[in-house]
Amino acid sequence: MSYIELENVKVEFGQERTFISKRRKVAKVVALNDTSLKINEGEFVAIMGKSGCGKTTLLNVVGTLLKPQGGAFLLDGRNITDMNDCELAKLRNHEVGFIVQHFALVDDITVEKNVALPLTYRHIPKKEIDKKVAEILKRLSISDKSKRYPYELSGGQKQRVAIARALITEPKLLLADEPTGALDEETGNEIVDILKELNAKNRMTIIMATHDKEIALAANYIIHMKDGKIVS
Ligand SMILES: Nc1ncnc2c1ncn2[C@@H]1O[C@H](COP(=O)(O)OP(=O)(O)O)[C@@H](O)[C@H]1O
Ligand SMILES: [Mg+2]
Fold first, then answer.
1. d(CA 174, CA 207)
2. Distance of CA 36 to the CA centre of its chain
3. Probe target for ligand 1 pocket from 9, 15, 51, 56, with the most ligand atoms within 8 Å of CB
4. Residue nearest to atom 24 of ligand 1 (CA)
5. From CA 230, how far away is CA 222, in angstroms rounded?
6. Ligand 1: which of 26, 57, 98, 177 to mutate, judged by most atoms within 8 Å of the beta carbon?
């Protein structure tokens, strides 16, 4: 059994509109259309495809943020469709790290507080949290920014902080949604090198959505999507 298994997963979004005549109409968008996929532990996979093809939706399903309306999704042999919201939140906090294009940092707290955030949901002594934060900031070469605020940092530094925050819980799975989309080429390559190293040294499973071919080449293999389907 693979670490991640999607079988005929279906996700639809209904966009409801009310017309002047008070007639309501629901326009359906099929974001994932009978998508099947297997990913093994320790693999680094890139997902490519045009904007709107379903990359983010797929990552959100795998990250258990979105329950599919049809099909089955198994993570490490567990059927996610059967779990309740509380169980899913716990699973996410312990096993999944997310990074996104625009970093999603909390702007009015310092770098070190941002990185510590996922651990504050657990009962861990502050001393231990501080030690972990210091270690991870050092590993990502941003120790000197620990007391700074996100708005004081460059894009590349912000993404390093976001990666640090994702790694602080030591997740098995890292989901990266266009992680280099807001960065220049050189900085983007640095970020991808960090992901490559995490995959090679820590055997972390990584799924990265991108529409940049060069960036996608960092992965072990590339999945191409079109209109909610995997085409190759
Ligand atoms: N919350 C939502 N409500 C309605 N439609 C959505 C929502 N999220 C995504 N969609 C639609 O689903 C399709 C897939 O979107 P998405 O997964 O974001 O694609 P990508 O990340 O490849 O650009 C698109 O047509 C998009 O408009
Ligand atoms: Mg997207």
1. 6
2. 19
3. 56
4. 52
5. 11
6. 57
Neighbouring residues of the ion ligand 2, judged by CB less than 5 Å: 55-56
Question: Which atom of ligand 1 has the smallest separation from the CA of 49?
Answer: 22
The model's pLDDT over 114-133, given as tens digits with 9 standing for 90+, comes to: 999 999 888 889 999 999 99
**Residue 99: alpha-carbon gap to chain centroid:** 5
pTM: 0.93
Which ligand has the shortest distance to the CA of 65? 1
Q: Judge whether 96 and 118 are in contact, CB under 8 Å.
A: no
Q: Which residues line ligand 1 (CB under 6 A)?
A: 13, 15, 29, 31, 49, 51-57
What CATH code is assigned to 43-68+82-230? 3.40.50.300
pLDDT tens digits, 74-83 = 999 999 988 9
* Residue 173: DSSP 8-state: E
Q: What is the pLDDT of residues 174-214, one digit of tens each?
A: 999 999 999 999 999 999 999 999 999 989 999 999 989 99
**Nearest CA-CA partner of 166 in 202, 213, 216:** 202
Q: Is 35 exposed, middle or buried (0-12, 13-18, 19+ CB in 10 A)?
A: buried
